[in-house]
Amino acid sequence: MKKLLLSIRDSIPTVFKGLFLTVLICGVSCQLASAQSRTIKGAVTESGDSEPVLGASILIKGTATGTVTDLNGQFELVVPSNESILVVSFIGFQSQEIVVGNRTTVNVILDYSSEELSEVVVTALGVERETKALGYSVQAVSGDKFTEARETNVMNSLSGRVAGVQITNSSSGVGGSTRVTIRGESSLNINNNQPLFIVDGVPISNNIVGSSGSGNQPVDYGNPAGEINPDDIESMSILKGPAAAALYGSRAANGAILITTKSGKNKKV
Asked: Coiled-coil intervals in this record (predicted)?
């Protein structure tokens, strides 16, 4: 019995030493962790006019921890260490990665991105919609495509640029007509196969106009679409099929070509 008591007495200091060492290590670790982890604040603005960016995403790289900016473009976030990297991003701007370091305030200026995020096309009645949100086939051609290699008839510039569109130009030379068909022929009358042309909301006919000349030689007087100046075109949207151009009625049974011309816009100087 005496030996048992002596054994317990000798073992007590050892147990306390182990507990003390464990508590000490945990305390030091917690203190170091609290010294590294801290709250940082900052603001996200646009380059140029320094306007605040509302809803910009601030994410700690490699984690799912993050936040978004408020109405004033400001944010507040707890970072675990000085080595933390903030990934700041927003639609239409270039993403940035910033090392926190020993700073408590991090202000970020985002530059505009020149990448095209999603194609926006002009649909029936001049409404702008994203291509992926449409349930029918629409394809757009920007205005600069018509001035890269100039044609005597602007419709000739569509050749090879739009899927399902056939361009047939006459051999009568400058001022000759160009016939446009979408997804093939549907009538024996060549003028009934062409799509409806809409220029800034105004329908125009692209029918081929001609007459019989001397010696029964036909004369080609051209068609209205050929009179459009390529320099005036901002964009051209091709609505393929009756579903795309249903709002224009039976005249657009073969599709429609919407031409939007350039206009003056307000710009900040």
From this structure: none
Whole-structure pTM value = 0.49
Calculate the dihedral angle through the C-alpha atoms of 118, 119, 123, 127, rounding to the nearest 10 degrees: 50
pLDDT mean over 166-171: 77
What does the alpha-carbon distance between residue 195 and residue 225 come to, in Å, rounded to a whole number?
11
Question: Based on the domain organization, do 103 and 147 belong to the same domain?
Answer: no
Q: How confident is the model at residue 203 (pLDDT cuts 50, 70, 90)?
A: confident
**Alpha-carbon dihedral 137, 142, 148, 150, rounded to 10 degrees:** 70
Under the banding of pLDDT at 50, 70 and 90, the label for residue 15 is very low
Strands (E) located in the chain: 38-46, 57-60, 66-68, 74-79, 85-89, 96-99, 105-110, 120-122, 128-130, 138-142, 165-169, 178-182, 196-199, 202-204, 210-212, 218-220, 233-239, 256-261
DSSP at 72: T
The string of pLDDT tens digits covering residues 25-75 is 555 444 444 446 889 999 999 887 788 888 899 999 988 888 999 988 999
The domain containing residue 199 runs over which residues? Answer: 120-261
* Number of domains present in the structure of the chain: 2
Range 123-126, long-range pairs (CB < 8 A, 24+ positions): 123/237, 123/239, 123/244, 123/258, 124/239, 124/244, 124/245, 124/246, 124/247, 124/248, 124/256, 124/258, 125/201, 125/247, 126/200, 126/201, 126/258, 126/260
